[in-house]
Design a protein that fits this description.
about 375 residues; mainly beta; 2 helices
Protein backbone atom coordinates (compact mmCIF):
# COMPACT_ATOMS: atom_id res chain seq x y z
CA UNK A 1 0.00 0.00 0.00
CA UNK A 2 1.24 3.47 -0.85
CA UNK A 3 0.66 5.87 2.04
CA UNK A 4 0.66 9.64 1.80
CA UNK A 5 0.64 12.43 4.33
CA UNK A 6 -1.83 15.19 3.76
CA UNK A 7 -1.40 18.91 4.21
CA UNK A 8 -4.56 20.98 3.98
CA UNK A 9 -3.98 24.51 2.75
CA UNK A 10 -6.83 26.93 2.23
CA UNK A 11 -6.24 30.06 0.21
CA UNK A 12 -9.31 31.79 1.57
CA UNK A 13 -11.15 31.95 4.89
CA UNK A 14 -12.96 28.81 5.96
CA UNK A 15 -12.06 25.29 6.91
CA UNK A 16 -14.37 23.21 4.78
CA UNK A 17 -13.28 21.12 1.83
CA UNK A 18 -15.63 23.14 -0.37
CA UNK A 19 -15.24 26.80 0.47
CA UNK A 20 -18.01 29.35 0.30
CA UNK A 21 -16.44 31.73 -2.22
CA UNK A 22 -16.34 31.57 -5.99
CA UNK A 23 -14.02 32.97 -8.64
CA UNK A 24 -15.78 35.42 -10.96
CA UNK A 25 -14.08 36.99 -13.98
CA UNK A 26 -15.07 38.89 -17.11
CA UNK A 27 -12.97 39.22 -20.26
CA UNK A 28 -13.53 42.04 -22.73
CA UNK A 29 -12.65 42.10 -26.41
CA UNK A 30 -10.75 44.75 -28.33
CA UNK A 31 -13.92 46.86 -28.44
CA UNK A 32 -14.06 46.71 -24.62
CA UNK A 33 -17.22 44.58 -24.71
CA UNK A 34 -17.78 41.45 -22.66
CA UNK A 35 -16.79 38.37 -24.67
CA UNK A 36 -16.14 35.71 -22.02
CA UNK A 37 -17.60 35.24 -18.53
CA UNK A 38 -16.92 32.74 -15.75
CA UNK A 39 -18.15 32.26 -12.19
CA UNK A 40 -17.02 28.96 -10.71
CA UNK A 41 -15.32 27.04 -7.94
CA UNK A 42 -12.29 24.79 -8.43
CA UNK A 43 -10.55 22.58 -5.87
CA UNK A 44 -7.07 21.21 -6.57
CA UNK A 45 -5.48 18.15 -5.00
CA UNK A 46 -1.80 17.68 -5.91
CA UNK A 47 0.50 14.90 -4.77
CA UNK A 48 4.20 15.78 -4.85
CA UNK A 49 7.51 14.33 -3.62
CA UNK A 50 9.04 15.47 -0.34
CA UNK A 51 11.77 12.83 -0.07
CA UNK A 52 12.84 9.39 -1.21
CA UNK A 53 9.65 7.34 -1.57
CA UNK A 54 7.78 10.00 0.38
CA UNK A 55 4.92 12.12 -0.87
CA UNK A 56 2.50 14.66 0.42
CA UNK A 57 -0.86 15.71 -0.94
CA UNK A 58 -1.94 19.33 -0.67
CA UNK A 59 -5.47 20.58 -1.17
CA UNK A 60 -6.06 24.18 -2.26
CA UNK A 61 -8.61 26.20 -4.17
CA UNK A 62 -8.71 28.61 -7.07
CA UNK A 63 -8.67 31.94 -5.22
CA UNK A 64 -11.06 34.82 -5.70
CA UNK A 65 -8.32 37.15 -6.88
CA UNK A 66 -6.88 36.02 -10.19
CA UNK A 67 -5.49 37.69 -13.31
CA UNK A 68 -6.91 37.24 -16.80
CA UNK A 69 -3.83 38.29 -18.74
CA UNK A 70 -3.46 36.03 -21.79
CA UNK A 71 -7.22 35.48 -22.21
CA UNK A 72 -8.45 35.93 -25.78
CA UNK A 73 -11.75 36.02 -27.67
CA UNK A 74 -12.06 35.14 -31.35
CA UNK A 75 -14.87 34.04 -33.67
CA UNK A 76 -14.30 30.29 -33.39
CA UNK A 77 -11.75 29.90 -30.56
CA UNK A 78 -11.41 31.54 -27.18
CA UNK A 79 -9.09 31.16 -24.21
CA UNK A 80 -9.72 31.86 -20.54
CA UNK A 81 -6.42 32.13 -18.68
CA UNK A 82 -6.51 32.64 -14.92
CA UNK A 83 -3.19 33.34 -13.20
CA UNK A 84 -2.72 33.13 -9.44
CA UNK A 85 -0.11 32.76 -6.72
CA UNK A 86 3.54 32.24 -7.58
CA UNK A 87 3.51 31.01 -11.17
CA UNK A 88 0.25 29.01 -11.20
CA UNK A 89 -2.35 29.18 -13.96
CA UNK A 90 -5.60 27.57 -15.05
CA UNK A 91 -6.37 27.78 -18.76
CA UNK A 92 -9.62 26.79 -20.50
CA UNK A 93 -9.67 26.44 -24.30
CA UNK A 94 -13.00 26.81 -26.16
CA UNK A 95 -13.99 26.11 -29.77
CA UNK A 96 -17.25 26.96 -31.56
CA UNK A 97 -19.10 25.70 -34.57
CA UNK A 98 -22.27 27.20 -36.04
CA UNK A 99 -24.69 26.35 -33.23
CA UNK A 100 -22.71 25.13 -30.22
CA UNK A 101 -19.43 25.56 -28.41
CA UNK A 102 -17.43 23.34 -26.10
CA UNK A 103 -14.41 23.15 -23.80
CA UNK A 104 -11.58 21.36 -25.60
CA UNK A 105 -9.14 21.25 -22.71
CA UNK A 106 -8.21 22.59 -19.30
CA UNK A 107 -4.50 23.06 -18.64
CA UNK A 108 -3.47 23.45 -15.01
CA UNK A 109 0.10 24.67 -14.45
CA UNK A 110 1.61 24.62 -10.97
CA UNK A 111 4.97 25.74 -9.62
CA UNK A 112 6.49 23.26 -7.16
CA UNK A 113 8.95 25.96 -6.11
CA UNK A 114 6.11 27.81 -4.38
CA UNK A 115 6.83 26.79 -0.77
CA UNK A 116 3.68 28.50 0.49
CA UNK A 117 1.72 25.63 -1.09
CA UNK A 118 4.20 22.83 -1.78
CA UNK A 119 5.97 22.65 1.57
CA UNK A 120 9.22 20.61 1.58
CA UNK A 121 8.97 19.83 -2.13
CA UNK A 122 12.13 18.20 -3.45
CA UNK A 123 11.46 19.66 -6.89
CA UNK A 124 11.42 23.26 -8.12
CA UNK A 125 9.83 22.36 -11.46
CA UNK A 126 6.81 23.97 -13.02
CA UNK A 127 4.49 21.22 -14.20
CA UNK A 128 1.37 21.14 -16.35
CA UNK A 129 -1.44 18.63 -16.73
CA UNK A 130 -4.14 18.67 -19.41
CA UNK A 131 -7.68 17.51 -18.70
CA UNK A 132 -10.50 17.05 -21.18
CA UNK A 133 -13.73 17.81 -19.34
CA UNK A 134 -17.13 16.74 -20.57
CA UNK A 135 -18.40 20.24 -21.37
CA UNK A 136 -19.86 19.98 -24.86
CA UNK A 137 -22.84 21.01 -26.97
CA UNK A 138 -23.38 24.32 -25.19
CA UNK A 139 -25.77 26.36 -27.26
CA UNK A 140 -24.44 29.54 -28.82
CA UNK A 141 -25.80 32.55 -26.92
CA UNK A 142 -26.33 30.44 -23.77
CA UNK A 143 -24.18 29.93 -20.71
CA UNK A 144 -23.08 26.56 -19.35
CA UNK A 145 -24.50 25.85 -15.90
CA UNK A 146 -23.46 22.99 -13.61
CA UNK A 147 -23.91 22.76 -9.84
CA UNK A 148 -22.68 19.17 -9.71
CA UNK A 149 -19.04 18.24 -9.25
CA UNK A 150 -16.97 17.60 -12.36
CA UNK A 151 -13.86 15.69 -11.31
CA UNK A 152 -10.80 15.55 -13.57
CA UNK A 153 -7.89 13.30 -12.55
CA UNK A 154 -4.63 13.41 -14.49
CA UNK A 155 -1.41 11.92 -13.12
CA UNK A 156 -0.92 13.29 -9.59
CA UNK A 157 -3.52 16.05 -9.89
CA UNK A 158 -7.24 16.02 -9.19
CA UNK A 159 -9.32 19.05 -10.19
CA UNK A 160 -12.91 19.37 -8.99
CA UNK A 161 -15.15 21.94 -10.67
CA UNK A 162 -18.56 22.80 -9.22
CA UNK A 163 -21.11 25.61 -9.13
CA UNK A 164 -19.98 26.54 -12.64
CA UNK A 165 -21.46 29.33 -14.74
CA UNK A 166 -19.44 29.75 -17.92
CA UNK A 167 -20.11 31.54 -21.20
CA UNK A 168 -17.71 31.84 -24.09
CA UNK A 169 -18.41 33.74 -27.33
CA UNK A 170 -20.66 36.31 -25.62
CA UNK A 171 -22.54 38.38 -28.20
CA UNK A 172 -23.62 41.99 -27.91
CA UNK A 173 -21.47 42.45 -24.81
CA UNK A 174 -24.05 40.96 -22.42
CA UNK A 175 -24.16 37.59 -20.67
CA UNK A 176 -27.09 35.44 -21.79
CA UNK A 177 -30.15 34.85 -19.61
CA UNK A 178 -30.53 31.34 -21.07
CA UNK A 179 -28.52 28.38 -19.79
CA UNK A 180 -27.45 24.97 -21.05
CA UNK A 181 -27.65 22.72 -17.97
CA UNK A 182 -25.07 19.94 -17.55
CA UNK A 183 -26.20 16.33 -17.73
CA UNK A 184 -25.19 15.67 -14.10
CA UNK A 185 -27.62 18.31 -12.83
CA UNK A 186 -30.40 16.93 -14.99
CA UNK A 187 -29.66 13.41 -13.74
CA UNK A 188 -29.61 14.45 -10.09
CA UNK A 189 -32.96 16.19 -10.57
CA UNK A 190 -34.79 13.54 -12.50
CA UNK A 191 -33.15 10.31 -11.44
CA UNK A 192 -32.10 11.01 -7.84
CA UNK A 193 -34.90 8.98 -6.21
CA UNK A 194 -33.50 5.83 -7.84
CA UNK A 195 -29.78 6.51 -8.03
CA UNK A 196 -28.94 5.99 -4.36
CA UNK A 197 -30.71 2.70 -3.80
CA UNK A 198 -28.87 0.32 -1.50
CA UNK A 199 -29.80 -3.32 -1.09
CA UNK A 200 -28.21 -6.00 1.03
CA UNK A 201 -28.10 -9.49 -0.37
CA UNK A 202 -25.95 -12.52 -0.93
CA UNK A 203 -23.22 -11.92 -3.54
CA UNK A 204 -25.13 -12.80 -6.70
CA UNK A 205 -24.25 -9.82 -8.87
CA UNK A 206 -21.11 -11.12 -10.56
CA UNK A 207 -20.52 -14.82 -9.76
CA UNK A 208 -17.62 -15.17 -12.17
CA UNK A 209 -15.39 -12.91 -10.04
CA UNK A 210 -13.99 -13.83 -6.63
CA UNK A 211 -15.08 -11.77 -3.65
CA UNK A 212 -12.96 -8.58 -3.63
CA UNK A 213 -10.08 -8.39 -1.16
CA UNK A 214 -10.84 -6.19 1.84
CA UNK A 215 -8.63 -3.09 1.85
CA UNK A 216 -7.70 -0.94 4.83
CA UNK A 217 -7.54 2.76 3.97
CA UNK A 218 -6.80 5.76 6.16
CA UNK A 219 -6.01 9.45 5.89
CA UNK A 220 -3.80 11.36 8.34
CA UNK A 221 -3.19 15.13 8.45
CA UNK A 222 0.59 14.57 8.38
CA UNK A 223 3.24 11.92 8.89
CA UNK A 224 3.25 12.29 12.67
CA UNK A 225 -0.52 12.24 13.16
CA UNK A 226 -2.96 9.43 13.71
CA UNK A 227 -5.75 8.86 11.23
CA UNK A 228 -8.59 11.35 10.83
CA UNK A 229 -10.50 9.14 8.34
CA UNK A 230 -10.62 5.35 8.29
CA UNK A 231 -12.31 2.88 5.98
CA UNK A 232 -12.18 -0.84 5.29
CA UNK A 233 -14.08 -2.64 2.54
CA UNK A 234 -13.88 -4.83 -0.52
CA UNK A 235 -15.06 -3.11 -3.69
CA UNK A 236 -16.41 -4.32 -7.01
CA UNK A 237 -17.63 -2.08 -9.84
CA UNK A 238 -20.16 -3.06 -12.48
CA UNK A 239 -20.44 -0.87 -15.58
CA UNK A 240 -22.10 -0.92 -18.96
CA UNK A 241 -20.06 -1.23 -22.13
CA UNK A 242 -22.54 -1.00 -24.96
CA UNK A 243 -25.06 -3.78 -24.42
CA UNK A 244 -22.80 -5.67 -22.00
CA UNK A 245 -22.28 -5.32 -18.27
CA UNK A 246 -18.65 -5.70 -17.19
CA UNK A 247 -17.30 -6.06 -13.64
CA UNK A 248 -13.95 -5.31 -12.05
CA UNK A 249 -12.56 -5.62 -8.52
CA UNK A 250 -10.45 -3.00 -6.78
CA UNK A 251 -7.12 -4.54 -5.72
CA UNK A 252 -5.96 -2.90 -2.44
CA UNK A 253 -2.29 -3.81 -2.89
CA UNK A 254 -2.22 -1.95 -6.23
CA UNK A 255 -4.19 1.08 -5.02
CA UNK A 256 -2.87 4.51 -3.98
CA UNK A 257 -4.64 6.34 -1.16
CA UNK A 258 -5.18 10.09 -0.95
CA UNK A 259 -7.76 12.49 0.37
CA UNK A 260 -8.33 15.10 3.03
CA UNK A 261 -10.14 15.64 6.32
CA UNK A 262 -12.21 18.75 6.94
CA UNK A 263 -14.60 19.91 9.62
CA UNK A 264 -17.75 19.62 7.53
CA UNK A 265 -16.50 17.63 4.54
CA UNK A 266 -13.89 14.90 4.08
CA UNK A 267 -12.91 12.77 1.12
CA UNK A 268 -11.16 9.51 0.35
CA UNK A 269 -9.59 9.01 -3.08
CA UNK A 270 -8.50 5.55 -4.23
CA UNK A 271 -6.50 5.26 -7.45
CA UNK A 272 -5.33 2.17 -9.33
CA UNK A 273 -4.39 1.60 -12.97
CA UNK A 274 -8.00 0.84 -13.84
CA UNK A 275 -10.14 2.54 -11.16
CA UNK A 276 -10.23 6.01 -9.62
CA UNK A 277 -12.94 6.68 -7.06
CA UNK A 278 -13.56 9.60 -4.72
CA UNK A 279 -15.89 9.29 -1.73
CA UNK A 280 -17.06 12.63 -0.30
CA UNK A 281 -18.54 12.61 3.21
CA UNK A 282 -20.53 15.41 4.84
CA UNK A 283 -20.92 16.27 8.52
CA UNK A 284 -24.01 18.16 9.69
CA UNK A 285 -22.74 18.27 13.33
CA UNK A 286 -24.99 15.42 14.47
CA UNK A 287 -24.41 12.78 11.83
CA UNK A 288 -22.20 12.03 8.87
CA UNK A 289 -23.14 10.47 5.56
CA UNK A 290 -21.74 9.72 2.12
CA UNK A 291 -22.69 12.76 0.05
CA UNK A 292 -21.03 12.19 -3.33
CA UNK A 293 -19.25 9.59 -5.45
CA UNK A 294 -17.05 10.23 -8.48
CA UNK A 295 -15.87 7.14 -10.37
CA UNK A 296 -13.65 6.59 -13.40
CA UNK A 297 -13.08 3.11 -14.83
CA UNK A 298 -10.50 2.38 -17.52
CA UNK A 299 -11.45 -1.02 -18.98
CA UNK A 300 -9.02 -3.17 -20.93
CA UNK A 301 -11.06 -2.50 -24.06
CA UNK A 302 -13.53 0.21 -24.93
CA UNK A 303 -13.92 3.79 -23.78
CA UNK A 304 -13.39 5.02 -20.24
CA UNK A 305 -16.49 5.05 -18.06
CA UNK A 306 -17.30 8.06 -15.87
CA UNK A 307 -19.97 8.33 -13.17
CA UNK A 308 -20.78 11.20 -10.81
CA UNK A 309 -23.50 11.36 -8.18
CA UNK A 310 -23.50 14.36 -5.84
CA UNK A 311 -26.99 13.95 -4.46
CA UNK A 312 -26.54 11.11 -1.99
CA UNK A 313 -27.32 10.61 1.69
CA UNK A 314 -26.24 7.09 2.64
CA UNK A 315 -23.92 5.27 5.07
CA UNK A 316 -25.21 7.61 7.77
CA UNK A 317 -24.20 7.42 11.43
CA UNK A 318 -23.77 9.73 14.40
CA UNK A 319 -20.55 11.76 14.41
CA UNK A 320 -18.11 9.88 16.63
CA UNK A 321 -19.48 6.58 15.36
CA UNK A 322 -18.51 4.26 12.55
CA UNK A 323 -20.88 2.92 9.93
CA UNK A 324 -20.57 -0.81 9.34
CA UNK A 325 -22.17 -3.31 6.98
CA UNK A 326 -20.69 -6.78 6.65
CA UNK A 327 -23.19 -7.92 4.03
CA UNK A 328 -22.73 -7.16 0.36
CA UNK A 329 -24.33 -3.83 -0.54
CA UNK A 330 -25.41 -2.88 -4.04
CA UNK A 331 -25.25 0.86 -4.71
CA UNK A 332 -26.54 2.22 -8.02
CA UNK A 333 -24.45 5.35 -8.66
CA UNK A 334 -25.86 6.08 -12.13
CA UNK A 335 -27.76 4.12 -14.74
CA UNK A 336 -24.46 2.90 -16.20
CA UNK A 337 -22.41 2.13 -13.07
CA UNK A 338 -23.00 0.17 -9.86
CA UNK A 339 -20.82 -0.36 -6.78
CA UNK A 340 -20.75 -3.52 -4.69
CA UNK A 341 -19.19 -3.24 -1.23
CA UNK A 342 -18.20 -6.09 1.08
CA UNK A 343 -17.36 -5.97 4.80
CA UNK A 344 -17.74 -2.21 4.83
CA UNK A 345 -16.75 -0.05 7.76
CA UNK A 346 -16.12 3.69 7.55
CA UNK A 347 -15.54 6.59 9.91
CA UNK A 348 -14.77 9.93 8.17
CA UNK A 349 -15.02 12.16 11.27
CA UNK A 350 -14.26 11.96 14.97
CA UNK A 351 -11.58 9.26 14.77
CA UNK A 352 -9.69 8.95 18.05
CA UNK A 353 -6.31 7.29 18.58
CA UNK A 354 -6.33 5.93 15.04
CA UNK A 355 -9.07 3.43 15.83
CA UNK A 356 -12.66 2.90 14.76
CA UNK A 357 -15.28 3.81 17.34
CA UNK A 358 -16.49 0.61 19.01
CA UNK A 359 -19.77 -0.35 20.59
CA UNK A 360 -22.21 -3.16 21.08
CA UNK A 361 -23.39 -4.93 17.94
CA UNK A 362 -27.11 -5.52 17.90
CA UNK A 363 -27.63 -9.23 17.59
CA UNK A 364 -30.63 -9.23 15.31
CA UNK A 365 -30.78 -11.11 12.04
CA UNK A 366 -32.84 -8.26 10.66
CA UNK A 367 -30.14 -5.69 11.40
CA UNK A 368 -27.40 -6.23 8.86
CA UNK A 369 -25.91 -2.72 8.66
CA UNK A 370 -25.36 -0.76 11.84
CA UNK A 371 -23.69 2.29 13.27
CA UNK A 372 -21.30 1.62 16.12
CA UNK A 373 -20.44 4.31 18.65
CA UNK A 374 -18.25 4.79 21.66
CA UNK A 375 -20.78 3.14 23.92
Amino acid sequence: MFWCAFVILFLALGNELHLSHSTEVSVNNTENKLCLYANLMVNFSVTYEVGVNKSETVLFVLPENVTTEGSTCNNTTSTLKLGFGDGHSWVVEFTKDNKTYQVDSIVFTYNLNDSSIFTNSTSNETKSVTAKPRITNVGVDTYYSCKSENVQRVESVTQTLYDVTLQAFVTNGSKSDTDTVCAADLTSTTVAPTTTVITTAAPTSTPTLPTPTTGNYSIAPNFNSTACLMATFGLRIGFKQGDKVETINLVPSATNVSGACGVNSSNLILTSDTITIMFTFSNDSKKFYLHALNVTVKPATGADVFADNTNMSIWAAAVGSSYMCNKEQTLTVTQTLTLYTFKLRVQPFGVEKGEFATGHMRLSLEVQCIAENNG
